[in-house]
């Protein structure tokens, strides 16, 4: 059974009230009304009037200040914090950003290290409270597996039989198949006496990879540059395939159609896949190829 922190989808939370909607024209109108109330002789202001220009500058500066307040508020909220703000927020939970690739400081030019993404760090921070438990909740196993190595893209825990725990690992490398050294690293992290309950028998295995390809012909409306629209569809379907490259996420026809139906696309004729691809709790999908064909202008 998933714990509270495993179940919460931060993207579904309502926008916080502390973050206000900012509109320049509304602020300027309020300033103009305030000026007229204080000094009625300015009731016939036109945009070329110096007083009007001064209020335009003031309104623009207020927009900047309010936006800064919005950004400061978001910086201390887990769903919205980014970059160094998120690093500092995660540190409160004892979580640090993982190194995916150490880079090479001796290369010419030097290759900087690659770190896990904000979304990955945010998820581990969210799960970290479950990591304090040694009662074997699913979220704790997932957190410790994700934290074991920067090469772990995703992980899931299931119990095929009483007392047995199967932790499935998806690698960032290649198609996601976890190599033996990575599995050993994850098992060592999970086998720690402060992590694994005495009665649990933990097995770590690579997620099963379900390969698929996408092939479609796109027909376009008259007007937009077909190459630009096709590139937009290509980027969208690549993003969808990457988002679904996680353990237990189905690949659906509706999701593929939604990605390909970019503005300017009249019709999508999808030839692969031909049906939804169901992905089990120990599996992950991997898109081997994407082929989009220009079907020309529709009639």
UniProtKB/TrEMBL annotation:
Pfam families: Baseplate_J_C, Baseplate_J_M. Residues 212-292 form the Baseplate J-like C-terminal domain. InterPro entries: Baseplate_assembly_J_pred, Baseplate_J-like_C, Baseplate_J_M, Phage_Baseplate_Hub. It comes from the Bacteria. Residues 133-205 form the Baseplate J-like central domain. PANTHER family: FELS-2 PROPHAGE PROTEIN. This is Baseplate J/gp47 family protein. The lineage of its organism: Bacteria, Pseudomonadati, Pseudomonadota, Alphaproteobacteria, Rhodobacterales.
